[in-house]
Amino acid sequence: MEFLKKIFCFPFTKIYSKNENLFKENNKNEVNKINIVNTNDEQNNSDNETDLDPYKQAILNQEYGLCPECNQPNTYENWCKECYSKKFQQDFGNWTSGNERIDMFIQESQLNARNNFELLEWIPYNRLRNIQFLAQGGFSTVYKAIWLDGWIQHWDYEKQDWKRYVYERDGQEYKDANNPKIKNPLQINEKYGYSVVLKSLNDSSNINNDFLNEWKLHLQCQHEARSNITSLIPLLGITQDPDTLNYMIVMNEAYDGSLRNNLKIKNYNPNDKFLNLWWLSTQLESLHKLNLVHGDFHNGNILYDDYKYPVISDLGLCRPVSQHNVKNDVYGVLPYIAPEVLR
């Protein structure tokens, strides 16, 4: 891992760059943040500050600037954890999922979010448009949709409201709205939104702690990944299908599909292969630092929102390394299961 870090001193300027303006304002600082990762070993012997992870070191160095409200170091670009957690808390009474466990889960994420990658929201189903079936899995059904409100970017002090990532919708999406198989069709007066994926979990209307376990682990791993200056696929929030009453996780749409879809392209580009290896190894390292194993790691669960930068997804089988499969059940995709498991 450290060997790879020393080789790849690239200025990774974006994690999600399919949308041209996304994270544009962060580009200058991303070079500095990656350099902190690559030179971490050399700095460890210089002073006590190097005991901090690269993310905390960046905060300490005020690389994200100062909060205009409290004048303390921001915890991300235009993001102050202390001030923003208070804003979220003041809004707790204005929304509810109808389920106490989910409310507490979302609220906890909002109180602890150091950046928008670690944040969840309750997303009313009626704020989603052009909900369209994508795929069926063993435990869930996947749809794509347009979220009218969009992903929180930062607090707009002038407007005293959240600034969000939304983009003008194209003409094809209004044509798609006429398809009878699409739910909540996009209206002609709805000009902006954010593309998302919905993962509907089978039989999740009666929520329990097992249901939330995957998403709690995902947020824990996301927190550790951000500390390592990388990211898993971001979770944006939770919603509920009013017809089935199943809960749905709302995630970023991976525009460029999975590694499986891109294997032929990657196979003939050695630079891409090494870059992908570095990027994925930093994400896996984040899981392993928490003594977790992914449990279902294969090229179908490696996604691309940008062609160059892969992100790990689907932590449904993630578990502590010391936790064995007490039921002796076999899960996973057959070509990627170890032969001894199938004996």
UniProtKB/TrEMBL annotation:
InterPro entries: Kinase-like_dom_sf (IPR011009), Prot_kinase_dom (IPR000719), Ser_Thr_protein_kinase (IPR050167). The keyword Transferase applies. It comes from the Eukaryota. Gene3D superfamilies: Intein homing endonuclease, domain IV (1.10.10.1010), Transferase(Phosphotransferase) domain 1 (1.10.510.10). Pfam families: Pkinase. The keyword Kinase applies. One of its GO terms (molecular function) is ATP binding. GO terms for biological process: signal transduction. GO terms for cellular component: cytoplasm. This is Kinase-like domain-containing protein.
